[in-house]
Amino acid sequence: MTILAEQSSRSNPYVLPHTINEAVFNRYGFINPKEGWEMSRAEAFALIMLLRELTPDYAIEIGTSQGGSLSVISRFAKRVYSIDIDPTCHERLGLQYPNTEFIAGHSQEILPPLLRQLQEAEHSLEFVLIDGDHSQNGVNRDIENVLQISSGSNAIHSYP
């Protein structure tokens, strides 16, 4: 996934001005990029544009934290599975995202049975955001698990 730079610059046409980001966030009602996001504004903007085009039926987010990226994923996906080690994600965010199932625990334990469940139900997994365990081994395990069945788009944030 190509990530655009965060700072605007007149000399670089590929850099997004902050006003474009703000307008998109406000238009779609996403969490303000200054609050609840572990991504830069440009990364969040790229995620919005990607998901707006994909509109996946099924999506998984590994690493929900404050729900910034979940606000985007749940807006464009019909069904989302949120995996996070924080068991309070559901109580903090559940009412805001009714199309999301919150699963507390380590992705290495939760992801394989969830992927099998989706595959057995013949649900097409079309998007996965890997942003949980930031160790190289953890990220690699998540990637390996997802690539076994996913034919959709996969985004990785904070790769070590």
Record keyword descriptors for this entry.
five-stranded parallel sheet, Rossmann fold, globular, 6 helices, 160 residues
List the helices and strands and how they pair.
Blueprint: H1 18-28, H2 41-54, E1 58-62, H3 68-76, E2 79-84, H4 89-93, E3 100-104, H5 107-120, E4 125-130, H6 136-147, E5 153-156
Parallel strand pairs: 1-2, 1-4, 2-3, 4-5
Can you walk me through this structure?
The protein is of the alpha/beta class. It has one domain: Vaccinia Virus protein VP39 (Rossmann fold). 41% of the residues lie in helices and 16% in strands. It is built from six helices and five strands. It has a five-stranded parallel sheet with strand order 3-2-1-4-5, sandwiched between helices. Helix 6 links the parallel strand 4 and strand 5. Helix 1 packs across helix 2, helix 2 packs parallel to helix 3 and helix 5 packs parallel to helix 6. The protein is globular. It starts with 17 loop residues before the first helix and ends with a strand. The N terminus is likely disordered.
Q: What is the global morphology?
A: globular
Number of β-strand runs: 5
The helix/strand class is: alpha/beta
Mean pLDDT: 79
The number of helical runs is: 6
* Count of distinct structural domains: 1
| The CATH homology group name | Vaccinia Virus protein VP39
Distance between the termini: 15 Å
Q: State Rg.
A: 15 Å
Largest sheet, in brief, is: 5 strands, parallel
Strand line-up of the largest beta sheet: 3-2-1-4-5
Q: What's the order of the H and E elements?
A: HHEHEHEHEHE
